[in-house]
Amino acid sequence: MDWSLVLNWAFVVALFTAAIRLAVPVLLATLGEFVTERSGILNLGPDGVMVVGGVAGFLVAYFTQTGPLAAASSWLGLLAGAGAGMLMGLIVSVFAVTLRADQVITGVTLVVFGHGMANYIYRQQFSSLTARTAGLPPFEVPLLSRIPVIGDILFKHDATVYMTVILVVLVWYFLEHTTWGLSIRAVGENPAAGETSGLRVAAVRYAATLIGTALAGLGGAVLTVVQLRMFREGIMGGRGWIAVALVIFARWKPGLALVGALLFGLADAVQYRIQALSQVGRGAGAIPYEFLLMLPYVLTILALLARSNRRGQAQAPEVLGRPYVKGEM
Amino acid sequence: MTAANLEEKRTVPPQPRRWLITLGAPLAGVLAGLAIGALLILLAGANPFEAYATMMRGAFGGRRQIEETLLKTAPLLLMGLGLTAAFRARVWNIGGEGQYYMGALAGGVIALNFADQWPRPLLIVAMLLAGAIGGALWAAVAGLFRIRRGINEIISTLMLNYIAILFMEYVARGPLQEPGGYLPESAQLAAAARLPTLFGSRVHIGVIIALVMIPLVYALLWSTPLGFRLRAVGSRASVARYAGIKVERLIMFALMFSGALGGLAGIMEVSSLHTRLKGGISGDYGFSGILVALLGRMHPVGVAVAAVFFAALTIGAQSMHVVYQLPVALAGAVQAVVVLCVLAADAIAHGKMNRGQ
Known about the structure:
heterodimer; A: 329 residues; 0% strand; globular; B: 357 residues; mainly alpha; disordered N terminus
């Protein structure tokens, strides 16, 4: 392959633009998982939540494309994705909080459940994979989008990118600077003490799980409704699991989660971009595209390796993954 | 998500009612799961009773149907049994898919290169061994990450799935592509490299091997010191460590053992069904294997029953698809619903008992 195709400004700008875009679904799921785990619930189901949000969002966006709601179809799809995510979240919380079931086992099962349901629902509506949604047009931020390079990379995205940035700030503020956020962190660190000071542990954990899964469902819908504008089996490509990994990678620091999601987006973008190029520059020296497709997964493992040590993660919420039984701790 | 977080105290229910939960929860789960499946069928505009009857006939209605169900049972059973050993030690290998592919690849390479040089018995044994070793080594990668760097195996085995599948797609299109072929697949395996079949049916020795594994895994878990240690690590790793058990080695064993059975399933399916190395040869056995192990209560006999049930659902769903145009994916949805219901029934039963004490 011809490396001069890669080493030029236009390519770099396109690469980083795509990286930011592609980081969005996984970032939303990471953000959600962050909130949920802060409350002490280990939800291993984001991949299942995302795919259910993805299929629900896709169907709603697709079927509202024609008719009176056509102008809002993408947004209705995104809303449906978040809603479907919360339905999955309800299952997660019933198992984790009310039934006090093993969170690892139910999480893994929920992922298989989500994929099975999503595939069934999609196949039940469509016999082929040709259906497409309209997606959202790019929105050029006035003035800022005219800054050379930076404007191209940061300020010419579709609205979901800006929405995600706002959500990141909101969730960070909510967790760190509001009483509700404090409650979530309190039941994740010491539920018994929280209970004593008047918190309803179960209610707080339900809320944290529903917020988390709404975000994951929204992430799945962004991918299917706006970015790929289609649904097919396996479309999440393990993004929900990468979100779980990013929370570990970030060691419960939101800033690092953001960096991690952008790194994932970059790996994904490199993969798409170079693949597009090697269609042109085929021949000796071309990197087989399967190896490029492996990049996000290899990167996830490398990220965990880089941040790991034998002692595990020090910053994890104290009671993560352990059900709370009144008076037991 | 450290190992310590994932371990939790398990209350053992009092003996007399234990069997009731052991059998009652899966039965209740299966009934609830089938009921929700019936609802899905109803929503799709078909008659659930007729659809289920079609499924039954499709899975057990005749000699050919029973053969198909048995053939489908073998990989599910192998996966489920391997994962049973791992889950008993609370080692969460969800990389069955990747181990299946790497087993298929390792065994397939033997088959492609030595089919015309080695006598058939040697060839078949070598293929199966290579399959098991391929799967075990791929799982060992996650084992190394876990014991050397403390990386949770749930994430690493899952990431390794994608890497293994993509690697298979690469070799099937690249170095192992059929000479002169256009499709992304290897040459067809020689007749000698197909698993021998039995009694003039399509049932092959892989089914027998899977069945033999039932008592073997039972013996491993309940009659060997190794099995005792695995279960000890599963119930309380910290206590097991104080008792002098080398927890790291057991984690490695649990991963490699389940990986080996996954790899074995992979080469068996390639040798008997697909006959070529290529992408898309698994049908999600890595994940349905998890459900099989859970539905079977991580007990070899239960796992066998669960594997037959899952195989029947999958084969039956194909007939249902032909007759009612219901998506085959229904089987996958119902399977997961069944296991969720079992987990719920389990937790409810446990919760009641904890309060009763």
